[in-house]
Each structure stands twice: as C-alpha cells, then as structure tokens.
Design a protein that fits this description.
The protein is mainly β. It is 12% helix and 44% strand.
Length: 137
C-alpha cells in the first residue's frame, strides 16, 4: 500500500482487550462477542477466554474461564448480553490446593442485535415516510 492510499483513510490503533482478573464483588457485563480456547501455564492447560464488549463505550475486555463460568456460559451465548459477578471463594471445595471461585452468571434471552432492532426498538426514521400528500404536483 502506498503512502497516498493510507492518507485516504482515517486510522485508529487497535489494542488487545484488557484481561480482567476478578476481585470479589466485581461485575463484568456487556455483549459476549468471542469465546476462544487458549493454552496457559507450564502444563499448557486449555482454558476458555471470553471477550465482552461494553455496550456504552465499545471497550473490549476478556476473562479466563473457570469451572463455574465454563459451566454457565455456552458458545451459543455469543451475541447475548451477559453479567458475570465474582462472589468469592467456597473454601469447602478445594482442588489442587485452591478454593473454588464462585460466580453469579446471567445471560439475556435475546441477542443484543434483536434487542436493539426490530420489536421494541425505536426506528429513527419512523414517521418520515413520503406520501402522495407530500408531492406538490
């Protein structure tokens, strides 16, 4: 691509989504846009990586799947509004020396695109249709 071609486009820098490590009581909410599988640790354990888009700011963040999150979120939840709240640890359930992390997960029944278009949405062009009365001849 030549420098002249680049000048024709307004450019923005793209950055990696922020990786969130939950603190107790923290809530992540927005549209679930990606579910990836990544390898972590020396043993190269495969875990899910969930990417969420904030509906107000468009900002992306991601978080790793843990037992409860993976059991509650599904691939078919992509496009839905989700809320994930870290409740703390359940010290009665221990695995590999770590207490189970407890999460409250909620998922919208409709996809975000269905909630913002079609039924129940406000059409910005409603009432602007041209009729025969609008034509002067």
């Amino acid at each position: 691509m030549t420098a002249m071609q680049t000048k024709e486009f307004e450019m923005e820098e793209r950055k990696e989504p922020e990786l969130v490590k939950f603190a107790e009581g923290e809530v992540i909410e927005g549209e679930l846009i990606r579910v990836d599988s990544i390898l972590v640790g020396e043993e190269k354990n495969r875990v899910a990586l969930y990417t969420v888009r904030d509906l107000d700011t468009g900002k992306l963040c991601c978080f790793r799947g843990l037992y409860q999150i993976d059991r509650k979120l599904r691939l078919q939840d992509r496009g839905h509004f989700i809320q994930v709240r870290y409740e703390g640890e359940d010290k009665t359930v221990i695995r590999n020396g770590n207490a189970m992390k407890m999460f409250h997960v909620r998922v919208s029944k409709q996809k975000v695109s269905e909630m913002t278009s079609g039924k129940g949405s406000v059409d910005p062009l409603a009432g602007t249709e041209i009729t025969d009365d609008d034509i002067p001849f």
